[in-house]
Amino acid sequence: MNTPDLSVNIAGIPLRNPVMTASGTFGYGVEFAAHMNLESIGAFITKGLSLKPRAGNPTPRIAETPAGMLNAIGLQNIGIDAFIEEKIPLLRMIKTPCIANFFGETIDEYAEMAVRLDAIPEIAALEVNISCPNVKQGGIIFGTDPGSAAKVVSTCRSRTAKPLIVKLSPNVTDIVVMARACADAGADALSLINTLLGMSVDLEKRRPLLANITGGLSGPAIKPVALRMVWQVARAVKIPLIGIGGIVSAIDALEFILAGATAVQVGTASFICPGAAQQIALDMKNWLMDNGVDDIKTLIGTLET
Amino acid sequence: MRIESTLLSNVEISPSYWRMRLTATDEFVRQASPGRFVMIQAGKSIDPLLRRPFAVFETGIVFGGSTAYFDILYRVAGKGTALLSTRRENEMLDILGPLGKGFSLSHAAGEHLLVGGGIGLAPLHALAKKLGGYDLATRLFVGGRGRNDIFCLDEFEMLGVECRVATEDGSLGERGRVTDILIPHLESTNGNATIYACGPEGMLRAVAKLAAEHRLSCQVSLESRMACGIGVCLGCVVPGHRHSPETPDFRCVCADGPVFDSNDLDWEKTR
Q1: Which of A7, A44, A302, B76 gives 20 to 30 Å between its CA and that of A88?
Q2: Which SS3 state, helix, strand or coil, does residue B242 take?
Q3: Does ipTM top 0.90?
């Protein structure tokens, strides 16, 4: 049979396949050039960027948990100026859409970041982070209240002509309410889920394992929660969804697509195998061939319930 | 690079300390300069999820054959290393590496002093071999809680390295810490020595302080929890000497290290 069509379109960005790499697990993209073919995936997303460089949280910042890990990095990043100066020239060589993930501590900072990123031709789209559980300001404050989320999104929307993706937090009572608020405020797509707030205890030392006490849980352990949320949101909004949460195989990725995601992001899996996203894209193609599916788009949201 | 290695041997060399030998490629051996490390998946499932970092103890060619190999030393300390100790000959392991920045070899005259604490001995053997190859005078100072924490010294002695031992309980060598046997020696070197250290953080801090007091060049190999090993998860950072909250100078143990010039780190802000 013919090679299946894996291409999808997210908010006007054509992707060669639906496999992206998640913010915070893929550096600024260039770090992976030695480990994989960056042109084998649909898109990659930068580490969350802010106006000024950020030191992040004290260490220990990570702890392993059953089939998962906790992190409390605290949005350490080089800042937008260093990103433009040091990373953008390297990204020019890569023919894969680069999506910039960003955050602010105030609505004004979100607005300024949107303006700065909008001016960078190498950036294909913006992913607004309103969901980092590990810092007090920026992120989660905006990610748990639908009114605040809508304000961030509409502000960013008015500052950029580029596609705007909003990354949602699962740490809310009803993710559908948040998704609707962001869609109504002008988001072109939603990515979900960010990490689940958790913690880990060292019994012997009677202390938390993380210096930050709490952290964000990721990895295969969270996949069922993520799948449920993607499925719920897919039934509530019309904009495309990007499924994230514990994807380590093409099977995992395809499950998200059935549940209603147009694309997926591979996160923690890239820590274990830097080439994980490339392998998942390849295995996805093989699965489609083996199962006689000639276009991945025909699978989106086809879960029978 | 990522390689599928065959396990050649996995033996307990001292209570809770193990040595594992795995097949390597020639390219791996070329890249595995002293102090670099590998990330190993202990099992085959998603639990434990993350790889574990291990220094390369030595590389070579299997006796009487043409297969390249490398060895790691590890202490069974948790779920990952406990699982690793159950792996048997001919099983396949998934290896990422060699990774990170190893020791910078100094050809300086004077003595080259290797300082190891417990499992911190692991990266020092390959270094001793390299220094020996340049005919540089090399000594090893090694410490641990007791005699069980001291191992592989015969392999250093075979390289012509003089080994000095300190144990906290006095069960082997002198009673005390490794710095207790290092201090008198440093006083005899008249500032004509280079230090390479690997061990627990408290030991490294003490050695770095001694080196600074004696104005000696000192490289330290750090250990840290890490998820990726390639500088992207930012889980393993340590503060560099220019670090402040406003102007972050965090270094990744995995990608900027694990070996650092002790002057490049901020020992005050390191916990």
Answers
A1: A7
A2: coil
A3: yes
